[in-house]
Amino acid sequence: MIRCPRGTRDFLPDEMERRRHYEGILRDVAHTFGFREIGTPIFEEAELFIIRSGPNILDELYGFKDKGDRELALRPELTAPAIRLFVNGMSNHPKPIKVFYFGQCFRYERPQSGRYREFFQFGAEIIGSATPETDAEAIALAVSMIRGLGLTDYRVRIGHIGILRQRLVDAGVGKDDMAEILRKLDKKSYDEAEPLLEDAGVSDADIADIFAMTDGTDGIGILAGIAGEAGDHLRSVLSCLRDMGVRDVEVDLGVVRGLDYYTGIVFEAEAPALGAEKQICGGGSYTLSELFGGEKVFSTGFAIGFDRILLALEKEGAVYEADGIGAYVIPASAEMRTRATEVTALLRAAGIPTDTDIMGRKLAKAMKSASDSGARCAVIVGAKESEDDAVTVRDMVSGAQTVVGIADLADFIRRP
Ligand code: HAM
Asked: How many CB atoms are located within 10 Å of the residue 380 CB?
């Protein structure tokens, strides 16, 4: 038996309906913030991702050569494609440009619960603005989306990559050691960060101070003592967020993020219930456009790990009740088949999700199909009622049967 490739999944109709339901919520929240949707190809020139995404992404890239010898890659994320789209076709649009996207991404990772080789991101980018209000708008959208889905147990941590980088430079860390040390600090792997910092010539006192700064405790207190532009910027972002009613965020100057393109604020959301793969959202401010042949513009964005946030909702016991279909039409006898087909067409034209027997089943078996279909009612088309232009509607929950005229049928079914 051929199965879907490792790290990918099929979605059966119930699951697909649930996914579309939650996707719809995210889409609605994005619209309420004034964002508009974009679409980009599933594969891109590999270079788009190689230029600035960092070693993590590179190791995980699904790259291939096409028949024209072009180096292509399945997209591992959507920020680089969104900025390429901006450079190619939106650079003249009035700023800021507020876009969102939903689609699958591919990373060659070791699959486990919450970590897939094909997964879905719902993300947003604000392109062409660098104000604290821009960052706050992106974070507020992310938080509103998480809340909008109904998740209650989540944490949002905000840092500023500029503050941490500057602290490391001041402590004597050179350019070559920076990325590796940042990665260790991001994972809070202090045992591994310590020898690297020592080798870079950082004093014991500075090491202790850097660890205290990045361990996530008392972030607000530490931020209060940080002078300079980056500190002011982060304080303004927090103040804007408070004005927007977003108060449940923490300051953690140890947030680094796995991608290399961030330049300013960085933030992550996690759902503790998920354990190892608990990060449900990540984002920050960055510049990429100048690397893709455009003018340099500042942007801020984030992506929600759609599969992970659905797992988190499931863990919290959120149940999604599928709508089901409205009606299942059954001819009472073979002679009534044509009439049943007409009634089906009529209900569908009235916008009522309607199914009917297409396997020539007799009444009892067709009733069983109606029940299996999850339809709210069965519409039985019998010869006697048809003479009066009517049908029998059976409520599939209560079992009550009512004779209803065809002219009133759609309204009758629509009634709750
Ligand atoms: P990222 O942190 O690499 O950021 O991915 C965003 C989210 O995608 C993660 O927080 C996680 O929930 C989900 N995710 C990542 N890898 C997997 C996987 N293998 N399986 C399931 N879910 C996964 C970005 O991709 C940036 N482009 C975000 C961004 C937008 N920054 C600025 N704008």
From this structure: 24
Buried b vs exposed e over 171-186: b needs ≥16 C-beta within 10 Å?
bebeeebeeebbbbbb
* Domain end residue (candidates: 294, 315, 336): 315
Q: Does residue 8 lie within any of the structural domains?
A: no
Same domain, 71 and 196: yes
- Tens of pLDDT along 109-144? 999 999 999 999 999 999 999 999 999 999 999 999
pTM for the whole structure: 0.94
Whose alpha carbon is nearest atom 21 of ligand 1? 115
43 CA to centre of ligand 1 in angstroms: 17
Per-residue pLDDT tens digits for 262-292: 999 999 999 999 998 999 999 999 999 999 9
Residues 64 and 181 in one domain: yes
What residues does 100 pair with on adjacent strands? 37, 124
Mutate to test the pocket of ligand 1, among 19, 77, 268 (most ligand atoms within 8 A of CB): 77
Domain boundaries, position 407: 327-414
